[in-house]
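thought: fold this chain, then report.
action: predict
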Amino acid sequence: MKIPARKQQNIFIKIIKFFAKLFFFPIFAFVNIFRHKETKKIIKKSLLLNILSFSVKLIAVFFLFLIWFFGYFAAGVMIVEKLGFYPHSVQITGTGSMFPTLPKSSEKDPLKQAKDIVGKYNFTSYPNGLVLFNKRYFGYKLQRLDIVVADNQKIRDITKKIFGNPSGVVKRIIGLPGETLELKDGIVYINGDPLKEAYTAKPHSTFGEEFLTECKKIKIPGNKYFLMGDNRKGSGDSREFGWVDEKDISLVLPFIKQIGILDKNYRDTSRDLTSFSKTKIDVQEYIKLLNEKRKENGAKLLKHQLLLDKSAEKRGEAMLKYDDLSFEATKSAYTMYSAMKEMDYWNPYYGEFPTLGYYDAKELLESQFEHANSKKFLLDDIYQEVGISEVKGEINGCPTQIIVQHYAGYVPPDYKKENIGSWTTTLDQLKKIQPSWNNLKNDQNFYNDHKQDIDDINLIINIRISNIEPIVDRMNKNEWLSEQQIDYTYKDENLFKDQENIAERLNSK
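observation:
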């Protein structure tokens, strides 16, 4: 039997009305109580019983409404939570890796910064959405500039090494799956196009690290993301620990939700691609800040030495030319000592600190003091003079800049008494035997027969006396030996052996 179309339509409407009434049942009940006819009857009868009956109904509907409201609200919260859209408050520590977008701790010690909570921000779970038949619906898709919380074994190893405890990181998505990424002259290039980054602390501030070096193009694999902190000179990120798998990302703060909240410190990027936007170091300001640190730690204050500025410049040129930042100068063979010697400068203790990138004085010092080894070097009380130079150039065709710092200092050698005594005794013995060997020239017959040996032994004795005498003099004054004098101390032993051999031959005649 076929149901007429109109009757089908009526049944369908009744079903809709039933579910609508069920969904909004308290509201329908509330409206029903206040229907015009019912109200008129109560007013007309004015009986206390009817009024009480009406009141009980009203209270019952009211409580029913509360149960209905909070029930649906709780159900809604559970659904939102289950789908991953409920916000999670994430505590941000003050390490400063996301500065200036997120606050930085006023603490100076990195370990204290990692424990200092500087803010709380609402993130949502990732991935989120409804999963049906292994397919996700309504879920958020990660975008560039989203801020995410990520964690994997490499990240935990690095954070443990720096802060003592393993943890995840809060970083910004910069590179997406399938994109080509390159770092060049402090700028990020995505698929060959420069990325203007208003959220970074400074322009021209993104330089390579172990995983991604300068001017090296990489293609990001599928389901992988390249993350970086906004404070590029103070952030351990994908440049160090590599790209992050999508499954390693647990929370996300979409870029659209950052607008109006986290964009208050964004920069004007209109000049970012010009050379004028490159940060320059104020040498005097850097030395002032470093001396403040040295004073706090009880080290001697440094003096600015112009000759060390020039030696640092020479070393910087060699480093860029040969792509060799090693102190030993394994590729160029042009060491710090060679550069100081070319500048006619000498000090017994010296060391250098090269840094690739564009820094102002405060940035450079903060970056160096984040690492125990560089902090120890900069606070070494053995140094009294410093020189600094910025050198621009290329490494393998990649434009870059290097800041080279040269340190030098003088400490009295404090020779051991036995060493001074040994050289003094040798000098006295040479002066004592010198006349007798020289007198052999007066014996004409013997001299004619052994002229070569007599001349050689007298020459050797004269050479030894002329070299050992100033060595003993400097040792007694507690002064450092010159380079030539140090070299001679290794040669004297061979001269002594030659002298003994000749003396043995002449004495046997």
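thought: worth noting. The chain has four domains: 5-83, 87-268, 283-409, 417-507.
final: tokens above.
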